[in-house]
Design goal:
With about 100 residues, the protein is of the alpha+beta class. The protein is about 35% helix and about 25% strand. Helix 1 packs antiparallel against helix 2.
Length: about 100
């Protein structure tokens, strides 16, 4: 039986991320675009468990990783997810894993 990411140690999460990267590279080489997207999402989830939610205060805006400079305004946190909205669509609430947020400089 596989462990959930929330039950894994830091070391196990890092091992899982490495294995997922390897699978994603192989899937990309075989032209399996959908599989690559699924594996990248899994990596993002695993990486989120390596972060400290206290480092992502509510009310802050962050750049979305892979979002071409798009900003995400954090309203509140729930576990490893930041809930809020993209600044160009303020009426549409969504949740992103913390690993997808990059601090503005």
């Amino acid at each position: 039986m596989e462990k959930r990411y929330s039950q894994m140690t830091r070391y196990e999460l890092q091992q899982e991320i490495g294995a997922l990267k390897e699978k994603a590279m192989k899937a990309e080489q075989h032209g399996m675009v959908n599989e690559v997207a699924v594996l990248e999402r899994k990596m993002s989830m695993a990486k989120a468990y390596l972060l400290n939610p206290d480092d992502f205060p509510s009310g802050e805006a962050y750049i979305i990783d892979g979002g071409e400079g798009e900003l995400f305004q954090v309203e509140y946190l729930n576990g490893i997810f930041a809930w809020g909205y993209r600044t160009h669509t303020p009426n549409k609430e969504e949740a992103l894993p913390l690993s997808m947020l990059i601090k503005k400089q």
